[in-house]
Design goal:
The chain has 225 residues and is an alpha+beta fold. It has helices at 2-8, 41-50, 116-121, 126-130, 168-182, and strands at residues 13-16, 24-30, 35-36, 54-58, 61-67, 72-78, 83-84, 101-104, 108-112, 136-145, 148-156, 161-164, 186-191, 197-204, 207-213.
Length: 225
C-alpha cells in the first residue's frame, strides 16, 4: 500500500477492504511517505465511490459517513481540542509571520494569525516544520469573507505533504478551536491552499461532524506488472 501511495503521489491515498462481507469496512490512509491515523478528504472520496452511508474501521476508531441524497456527505470524526503552547519560537518555521497564539492538538500544532492576508502571506520553512517532531502545523485566521467563519492552511512535510489542499483531520482541531470562540456549534471553514476547499463543521460533544462534496474525475485499474 505504501508503494502504491508513493506512486500516486497525492497527499493521501485511501485503501478500503471492498471484499469483506462485514458491515464495517477496514479503511487505511497513506501519504507518499507514511501511513496516517486520520484523513478526511480521502474518507469522503471513499464513501463517495462506495455510494450511500458507510462505516469504517480505522486507526482512529469507527468512523461513520452519511449521505443526504443531494450529494453532501457528512463524516463523524473524534474531536481534537487543542491546548495552549507557551514560549515557543516560530520564526524558523514561519519567518516573519505574526503568530497571535499557539496550540497543540493530538497530531499537529495550531497557530493563529490575525487575518486572511497574514495567512496568505506566510512562507513556511519545510525543514524547520519537520524538525518540530509532529505530523504538521495548521495555521488559521478569522474568516473575514461572507459566509466563512474561519480559514486555514495546513503543512505536513514530515509525512511528504509540503502543503495539503484540504485537510479533514485538521478540521477536528479547527472546529474544537473556533466553535467555543465564535459561540456557534456549526461553522464553515475554507482551506486556502492553491486548490482551496470548503468544509462545514459541527461540534457535538467529543465528535466533529464534517460535510462536503466529492466528484469522480478518474476511473482506472492498477496492475501488478
Amino acid at each position: 500500500m505504501q508503494s502504491v501511495a508513493s506512486e500516486m503521489n497525492l497527499s493521501e491515498t485511501a485503501f478500503v477492504d471492498m471484499y469483506s462481507d462485514t458491515e464495517v469496512k477496514t479503511l487505511r490512509w497513506f501519504t507518499p511517505t507514511a501511513e496516517v491515523n486520520l484523513c478526511g478528504h480521502a474518507t469522503l472520496a471513499t464513501a463517495h465511490v462506495l455510494g450511500g452511508s458507510q462505516r469504517f474501521d480505522t486507526l482512529s476508531g469507527e468512523l461513520q459517513c452519511l449521505t443526504d441524497g443531494n450529494g453532501m456527505i457528512e463524516m463523524n470524526f473524534p474531536a481534537d481540542p487543542p491546548t495552549p503552547v507557551e514560549n515557543m519560537e516560530w520564526n524558523a518555521s514561519f519567518p516573519g509571520a505574526d503568530i497571535v497564539s499557539a496550540w497543540r492538538g493530538v497530531s499537529d500544532y495550531l497557530l493563529e494569525v490575525p487575518s486572511v492576508k497574514d495567512l496568505l502571506q506566510i512562507q513556511p520553512d519545510s525543514a524547520a516544520i519537520t524538525a518540530l517532531g509532529v505530523r504538521g502545523v495548521i495555521v488559521t485566521a478569522p474568516g473575514e469573507l461572507e459566509g466563512v467563519d474561519f480559514v486555514s492552511r495546513c503543512f505536513y512535510p514530515a509525512v511528504g505533504v509540503p502543503e495539503d489542499p484540504v485537510t479533514g483531520s485538521a478540521h477536528t482541531t479547527l472546529a474544537s478551536f473556533w466553535v467555543p470562540r465564535l459561540g456557534r456549534g456549526q461553522l464553515t471553514g475554507v482551506q486556502l491552499s492553491q486548490r482551496t476547499g470548503t468544509v462545514h463543521v459541527r461540534l457535538d460533544g467529543d465528535r466533529v461532524h464534517m460535510s462536503g462534496r466529492a466528484v469522480t474525475v478518474l476511473v482506472g485499474a492498477l496492475t501488478t506488472e
